Amino acid sequence: MSKLPKEHQFVDLSDYGRPIAKIIAKALKNTAFTPIHVTIAFIISGLIAIVFILEAHYWLAAFFLILKSILDAADGELARVKQKPSYTGRYLDSVADIILNAIIFISIWYVTNSSIWICTLAFLGLQLQGTLYNYYYTILRNKLDGDTTSRVFENKVPFALPGEKQQHVNILFRLYKILYSSFDKVIYALDPRAGYGTMFPKWFMSGISTFGLGFQLLLIAVMLVLGLKAFILSFFLVYTIMVVIFIAIRKFLL
């Protein structure tokens, strides 16, 4: 099941792992494995990748970064095929992503001996990129009656869905707000009327998908195996300028 109606689906460059994720979800559909188990698996995969970065085993690090991306898609796919969406899974996924992103960048900073300020600014840029992608994508999904588990604005704790505990939702929601609210506020301040504009064309969404975490991890993996680890942090710092460019395109050309 896609997050968008078929006629509005676009080439999502960050979603290359979806075909394999669907196979994994189908294989686990009638088992005791839950989407939370798959989320835990992608956390483990991300941590293994970090260890291999620190040990300079970059091909193995690249493999586990890509595996993490695939499993990151598989947990949502499994929730859909089992028809068991949950806010616990939604927030755990996001909280795990931002923490892993921070540790990945710190590990790259450590092995390249680059400036901690470049590392910090690159991480903030990475998160702003991902926030813009999620902002536009969620608006699009809500407009088209697609998958609406994610909300454009996370302002209050949602009611737990069947099969999950409200206490878990409360805790993970608060963590989510602490980690993401500042990025959400920045993006909203830059483009507060995005939800009132025309429908985002497919080419625009494909371009924005380069901000998706899957594509970001792919870039990191490729740069690691090509011996370009010293340029990873600088690249994501400079690429953040595209946030302003995409917003300008949305405001003035669409």
Please outline what is shown here:
With 254 residues, the protein is mainly alpha-helical. 69% of the residues lie in helices and 0% in strands.
H and E order: HHHHHHHHHH
- Overall number of domains: 1
For CATH, the homologous superfamily is named as CDP-alcohol phosphotransferase transmembrane (TM) domain
Number of helices: 10
What CATH calls the topology is Four Helix Bundle (Hemerythrin (Met), subunit A)
Secondary-structure arrangement, i.e. CATH architecture:
Up-down Bundle
The largest pleated sheet is described as: none
> In whole angstroms, how far apart are the ends?
29 Å
Kindly state the number of beta strands. 0
Radius of gyration: 18 Å
Structural class: mainly alpha
Q: Per the principal axes of the C-alpha atoms, what is the gross shape?
A: globular
Low-confidence runs: none
- Rounded mean pLDDT score: 93
Report the CATH C-level class.
Mainly Alpha
Structural overview:
With 254 residues, the chain is mostly helical. It has a single domain (12-252), classed as Four Helix Bundle (Hemerythrin (Met), subunit A), CATH 1.20.120.1760. 69% of the residues lie in helices and 0% in strands. It contains ten helices and no strands. The protein has helices spanning 18-28, 35-54, 58-81, 87-112, 116-143, 166-190, 202-208, 213-225, 232-239, 241-252. The two termini are 29 Å apart.
Short descriptors:
single chain; mainly alpha; Four Helix Bundle (Hemerythrin (Met), subunit A); 0% strand
